[in-house]
Amino acid sequence: MKVSYNELQGLCRKAFSGIGFEDGDAADAADMVAWMQCHGLHGVEQLNRGLDYLLAEDPEALTRVIYQDGDLAVLDGQGHSVLRSISLATELGFAKARARGLSVVKIRRCHNRQLIMGYLSRLAGRGMNITAFWRNAQVPLTEQVVGFRAGHTTPEVRVYSVRDVPEENEPNDGITLVMANHVELLPSLDADHDLDLLAHHPESELLACRELALKEGIEVDDAIWARLKTLAHRILVESSEASRGGAGAGVTDND
């Protein structure tokens, strides 16, 4: 089925509220999913893959700073989706890069890492060059690089196959962000690069997807849409029950 950008954004926001997100976090997370879906990057599918994790997460287990100095920050995402753990981490990296020219932020123990792109788009729109890197635990082992140029809110995305996996290789559930004020960080691709490139989505391709989605609507799987509606309904039910409970308590007090 096809829905408008606003419909998708609104339903996702209600669904995140139903899961237990604070209002601001729910709005941010909804923006991220809608942003990815609009650019042809399967945001709703990525969300669906991580919904079971989101429903089981402890919202009280906040992202924790393990180490930081003027240029570097290492954070523990507490095993949460980036939709819960990444917003403040990206702002921390942005502030360091603004002050020092360059920053590196490493977020450990996080998942749904694809959904970080919408957050980075915001920072790129504020004049920051950004490269995000992470390794996917799959066969073949792959590494993904997402690069934003300052002032450009659409990235270039590349996925590479790791040819020679080292013996000491360990599962990687983290993500590394490099931000710079005045340096474009993503290297150009040419014939001299000895790489197994599995996928390449240039900025122009993603912009074309966005224009088509905004014009003709966004394609969403019916089953996933129904699941989001169920989560959105949860917040309505809980709100109604809370309202009835409050009204009942008031009558009792007056008596």
From TrEMBL:
Gene3D superfamilies: 1.10.1530.10, Hypothetical oxidoreductase yiak, domain 2 (3.30.1370.60). It comes from Halomonas lysinitropha. This is DUF3726 domain-containing protein. The lineage of its organism: Bacteria, Pseudomonadati, Pseudomonadota, Gammaproteobacteria, Oceanospirillales. One of its GO terms (molecular function) is oxidoreductase activity. Pfam families: DUF3726. It comes from the Bacteria.
